[in-house]
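Lab channel / #folding
Pinned by the channel admin:
"Please post every new chain as: sequence first, then the structure tokens as a reply. Keep commentary short and put observations after the output so the thread stays searchable."

First post following the new format, from NK:
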Amino acid sequence: MRPSLSAALRLTTLTIAVLAIGVTGCGESKQIPVSGKILLDGKPITVEKGQSASVNFYGGEGKAFGIGEVKENGEYTASSNNKPGLPAGTYKVTVTYSKPKDSKDPYSVPVRLINEKFTSAEFTELKIEVKDNAPPDSYDLKVTK
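Reply from TO:
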């Protein structure tokens, strides 16, 4: 008895999928270290008590792909998939930098300290290209008020 055409097709598709995984790996890609400074009007931001800052990296489909932990001196380090760094590629970048409207109430409505366009993946002008051996300051992010 010969196998049906649909069974043969399924077996062929499965074989191709297994071979593709074997050749490309299971989606693992090299993480390249990414760190830099957030520069507001040319000067590093200072994240004071009560203020907050964050960086997000968006891949080709506009999906959040990585995050950046921002220190008090405005320096950040990116990570994705719970590992330091990002895979090579081009990313849109958003930055948030805010403080509470009422300094006595940390839960009050936040006030942006940078231009709104930098906070939206749709409107941000910030892009970085992550690659091996990037020159110093390649990942500095320049924002305005």
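NK: Residues 72 and 90 are 27 Å apart (CA to CA).
TO: also worth noting, Residues 5-24 form the longest helix (20 residues).
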